[in-house]
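Please describe our next protein:
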Amino acid sequence: MNSILKGDLQAVEGAQPAAGTSPDEVLTKKQLAPRLHVTIRTIENWQRRGVLPYVKVGKVVLFVWADVLEALRTNFCIRRKTLLK
């Protein structure tokens, strides 16, 4: 997730949209979870807490990839392990 937050989508396996798609690509929960390397349950928790912006069309929940990345950059910070001496 660190590389996603830094904007380095190339470094995350599967994070780069397929050829011919745009940053405005729309994803389902099942498509979004592996792209972020988290479970569907985590996506649902973030959705419920208001971390991830989504659009609901009938019973289908959709996420815009560019909006998801921006929300993650805004709502999470990168923590690095420090060595205690």
